[in-house]
Amino acid sequence: MGLGGRLPRSIGQLGVNLKNLLLQENQIFGSIPENFSNLSRLLVLNLTSNLLNGTISPEIRKLSNLQQLFLSHNHFNRTIPPALGEFPHLGLLDLSHNKFSGGIPDSLANLVRINYLFLNNNLLSGTIPSSLGRCTELHKLDFSYNRLTGSIPPELLGMSEIRIFINLSHNQLEGPLPIELSKLENVQEMDLSSNRLTGSIFPQISSCIALRLINFSNNFLQGHIPASLGDMKNLQSLDVSSNQLSGVIPATLNKIDTLKLLNLSFNNLEGVIPSGGIFNLASNLSFLGNPYLCGTVASKSICSQRRQWFQSRMFLIIFIVVTCTSAFLSTIFCVIGYRRIRVTTSSSEETEMIRKTKTPELMHNFPRITYKELSDATTGFDDQKLVGSGSYGRVYKGVLPDGTAIAVKALVLPYMANGSLDSRLYSHSALVSDFGISRLVMSAGGGNAGVIDNMGNSTANLLCGSIGYIAPEYGFGSNTSTKGDVYSFGILVLEMITRKRPTDDMFVGGLSLQIWVKSHYHGRVERVIDPSLGEASRDQSPEVKRMWETAIAELVELGILCTQESPSTRPTMLDAADDLDRLKRYLTGDTTATFASSLGISSSTIGDD
């Protein structure tokens, strides 16, 4: 009719005798006026296909004689008002194709005379009320294309009067396919597609003898297709595609003369496709996505060529050749693999033995000790706990709560009850310390250089109090490394041989001690070595004396080698330990122990004038 605008309030003055108000397919917008309730004898209200988007007044319940209410194809976007369930004579309610949200109100169960209930194509959510089972006179029920969840209530499916169709498709319904569907003996169409239904298609579905259409597609149904479907003489369309059905296709389906559409695609069906009836009319589209099916469809063979190939003599020959070749190659690969594994395992065991013999184990998990714990352990750094002092700090003896004895300086070290290294070299005080500094720092960081960087790019603060033993590269801010420990070890060797401290006034540092040794290295060993160290050899035979001179000269050379200015030219501690081991074997009479110098100094020339 082309009407537009809002419904006027004066519409309620049309008279109490108005029975039909038909305003469908116009441009009417806004709300339904409250004074509609004045039309108390109205039987049919049709506002389909307009632009209504406002509210539905609760006063609409006063239309107590209303039999048909059409509000479909509008823009209503609120919840369905409970007042719509208060029409005692209502036989048709059509709210489809709107944007109604929220749940289905329980009040709709009061529509005991309802024959047609359409709530499809909205935004409804929640579960289907089981109370709708009281609407026993329903012929058509359509809740499709919503967001309904939960299972299908058995009470709803017990209404045997549903004789036209039930459509719950395109929702989010779940749970097993209800066996109560078999009670709908008069229903003609049943569409439960595009949900999340599980379970199997029960054989009792054949009790619905009036069914013309079954659509269970796009669910999670399993099991076999029941052969009892062949008893449904009125079935025209069967769609169970996109499920997880298995087994063979029942040949009984070819007995249904009325069946015109069959879709079994995208399942796990297997076996031979039956012939006759619908199977002579269906195309291959009805069987797609079932990789284990074969047969003739629309005069085209799906698997006959494959079956002929398997049965051919050529296939048998190729199969035997391939099998034998594969077995032969597998045997060869197994033998090669076995031998390689044995070699790898043996090599790994030897490497592990060498590593265990030569590589000293690193210490890990150093404890963190607070300043308060150190203060308590030394009784507040009491002078009675003082075990040594020098120009670079004091050393206190302390005892931790667990009974561990410690020595406390700038570092916390295990307490050595038998005296200090200095007491072994000289006859009085100060502890030669800070060996293994790089290993301590690197072990605490798990070997991660990033941890060292976090402790400071310079070692100046860390190595305070160790002048004379610190490698020269540390003075330029280099990171700690094991090559710095090698340097400190070399200084100790030279200090032990020469009996001269690297911190004496005549030496600026440890490097000066090495330079002094080199400058006096052109004469005999006695000119470099403290005479007291040679006393043991003066009363020995020339051979023994020569042996001791050679050993001491090798120690001098090792000290010089370890105190090279460039870290890259110093040996590793593993190499130094190896040299000491050879020296020990040499002194015990092992004539196979030989020495080689990277400084160009030979043991054979040490004793020459």
Automatic annotation (TrEMBL):
<keyword id="KW-0597">Phosphoprotein</keyword>
<dbReference type="InterPro" id="IPR001245">
    <property type="entry name" value="Ser-Thr/Tyr_kinase_cat_dom"/>
</dbReference>
<dbReference type="InterPro" id="IPR001611">
    <property type="entry name" value="Leu-rich_rpt"/>
</dbReference>
<dbReference type="Pfam" id="PF13855">
    <property type="entry name" value="LRR_8"/>
</dbReference>
<dbReference type="InterPro" id="IPR000719">
    <property type="entry name" value="Prot_kinase_dom"/>
</dbReference>
<keyword id="KW-0812">Transmembrane</keyword>
<keyword id="KW-0325">Glycoprotein</keyword>
<keyword id="KW-1133">Transmembrane helix</keyword>
<dbReference type="GO" id="GO:0004672">
    <property type="term" value="F:protein kinase activity"/>
</dbReference>
<keyword id="KW-0472">Membrane</keyword>
<feature type="binding site">
    <location>
        <position position="409"/>
    </location>
    <ligand>
        <name>ATP</name>
    </ligand>
</feature>
<keyword id="KW-0418">Kinase</keyword>
<dbReference type="InterPro" id="IPR051716">
    <property type="entry name" value="Plant_RL_S/T_kinase"/>
</dbReference>
<protein>
    <submittedName>
        <fullName>Leucine-rich receptor-like protein kinase family protein</fullName>
    </submittedName>
</protein>
<dbReference type="Pfam" id="PF00560">
    <property type="entry name" value="LRR_1"/>
</dbReference>
<dbReference type="InterPro" id="IPR017441">
    <property type="entry name" value="Protein_kinase_ATP_BS"/>
</dbReference>
<keyword id="KW-0067">ATP-binding</keyword>
<keyword id="KW-0433">Leucine-rich repeat</keyword>
<keyword id="KW-0808">Transferase</keyword>
<keyword id="KW-0547">Nucleotide-binding</keyword>
<dbReference type="InterPro" id="IPR003591">
    <property type="entry name" value="Leu-rich_rpt_typical-subtyp"/>
</dbReference>
<keyword id="KW-0732">Signal</keyword>
<feature type="transmembrane region" description="Helical">
    <location>
        <begin position="314"/>
        <end position="338"/>
    </location>
</feature>
<dbReference type="InterPro" id="IPR011009">
    <property type="entry name" value="Kinase-like_dom_sf"/>
</dbReference>
<dbReference type="Pfam" id="PF07714">
    <property type="entry name" value="PK_Tyr_Ser-Thr"/>
</dbReference>
<keyword id="KW-0677">Repeat</keyword>
<feature type="domain" description="Protein kinase">
    <location>
        <begin position="187"/>
        <end position="587"/>
    </location>
</feature>
<dbReference type="InterPro" id="IPR032675">
    <property type="entry name" value="LRR_dom_sf"/>
</dbReference>
<dbReference type="GO" id="GO:0005886">
    <property type="term" value="C:plasma membrane"/>
</dbReference>
<keyword id="KW-0675">Receptor</keyword>
<dbReference type="GO" id="GO:0005524">
    <property type="term" value="F:ATP binding"/>
</dbReference>
